[in-house]
Amino acid sequence: MPSSEEFKAQGNKAFAIKKYQEAADLYSSAIALDRSNPVLYSNRAQCHIHLRDWIRASNDVEVGLRLQPADKIKVKLLFRKGLTAKGLGNIEMAKRAFKDALQLDPENLAAANELEQVQPKKLKREGFVHREPRKISIEVVDELPSEILEQIRGEPAPPSSTKTLEATSADVNAVADELFRGRKNKSKDEVHNSKQETPFVERPTMHYLKTLKSLPPERKHNGYKVVLDLSSSQLDEMFAFSGIESDFFEFFLEASVHFLKNHTEYTSEQILDKLEYITRFKRYNLTAQLTPDDLIQNFIDALDRYGVSAHARGKQLLAR
């Protein structure tokens, strides 16, 4: 019969290839032979986090912490306690766990980023006057504005009774500029003229993205181009403060797979360079961890035709 260390090694191998349930079972076998090893509970907790089994993950981190682990393992357990508490909706417990992790390891960026997400910074300006919140009207829409539909469909959108902002260009960059709020320097005349137009109602970036994701496959091609053509400055504007969004990241991978498998408009190097830039944003590691395994695997598989170097680089950038 294998020893506890052997079961642990097998669990590590299963975890490395993202077989999280199998890895959890192997760690359970190791725990049955060594119930006083906090590392095993920490490892199994991470498997449960990937599986979004917050209750089992919470149980494991609590047992691991009661075993009085060394600081290095304790930081991991506290971080995972924060994630499980967040998953269970216990924000106060999540705050305490991330703070405790940072107290032991002040340089832990993952814990700092998570704490920032659950504990927004408060305004501390002198003379700040508290005002009652104002009601803001929200318009619910079923489809994208007409100028974006034109780009995606490749044909004029049907006439609408509502005035919309006329597209200034037929190319994808113009759509991306409006879609993702890219900013360009405008002359005074352009600014003045733009005030004479009736713009469509401002909507959050992710609203557009979810609409693009819902399009049928035959109409997604240009939507994919919008995402892959985003410049570094546009990405900075979108995510430099808030961190990378899961919806965006998943759509980016989906778009990349589309072109890597079926088209030659983007090279593997261009796509990997864009992915490498995205890895610099806050919350990237957590977002990558929570991305569906099949989507990650599709991206890696799509790189196979581009050689060992591209395949290895893709795996490294998506290592979780």
From TrEMBL:
Q: Which Pfam families match?
A: TPR_8 (PF13181)
Q: Where does the record place its TPR repeats?
A: 4-37, 75-108
Does this entry carry the keyword Membrane?
no
Q: Which InterPro entries match?
A: TPR-like_helical_dom_sf, TPR_rpt
Q: Look up the domain of life of the source.
A: Eukaryota
Tell me the keywords, alphabetical order: Repeat, TPR repeat
For this UniProt entry, the molecular function terms from Gene Ontology, in alphabetical order, are:
Hsp90 protein binding
Q: Which PANTHER family match?
A: STRESS-INDUCED-PHOSPHOPROTEIN 1, TPR REPEAT CONTAINING PROTEIN
Name by which UniProt lists this protein: RNA-polymerase II-associated protein 3-like C-terminal domain-containing protein
* Lineage of source species: Eukaryota, Fungi, Dikarya, Ascomycota, Saccharomycotina
